[in-house]
């Protein structure tokens, strides 16, 4: 099964790349894009049982300790259909 992890800067953290992209979009005529936040995307092919709370906790640990910096980043996990209890 594939687990998707999205990592972005916390709202309180300045995102210079996102600001640059937003300014470029505005210059190109896309002024409706009022704010842009950039981030990272990970796909993890998981061979364990994601219906198990222990397995899900391992994925949460990976997302919080390895894939993101908890001081400046937030993460969101999208679990495969049918694995949520």
Can you give a write-up of this model?
This protein is α+β, with helices and mostly antiparallel strands and 85 residues long. Helices cover 32% and strands 25% of the residues. A 3-stranded antiparallel beta sheet has the order 2-1-3, with helices on one face. The model has no long low-confidence stretch (mean pLDDT 95).
What percent of residues are in strands? 15-25%
Main sheet properties: 3 strands, antiparallel
Identify low-pLDDT runs. none
Radius of gyration, whole Å: 16 Å
- Given helix and strand content, the structural type is alpha+beta
Oligomeric status:
single chain
The shape is elongated
User: What number is the mean pLDDT?
Assistant: 95
Give the neighbour order of strands across the main sheet.
Answer: 2-1-3
Give, in order, the helices and strands: EHEHE
User: First CA to last CA: what distance?
Assistant: 16 Å
**Percent of residues in helices:** 25-40%
Number of helices: 2
Number of E-state strands:
3
């Amino acid at each position: 099964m594939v687990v998707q992890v999205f990592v972005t800067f916390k709202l309180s953290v300045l995102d210079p790349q996102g600001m640059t992209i937003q300014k470029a979009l505005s210059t190109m005529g896309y002024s409706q894009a009022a704010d842009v936040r950039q981030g990272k995307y990970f796909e993890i092919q998981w061979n364990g049982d994601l219906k198990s709370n222990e397995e899900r906790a391992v994925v949460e640990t990976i997302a919080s300790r390895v894939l993101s910096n908890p001081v400046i980043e937030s993460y969101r996990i999208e679990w495969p259909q049918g694995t949520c209890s």
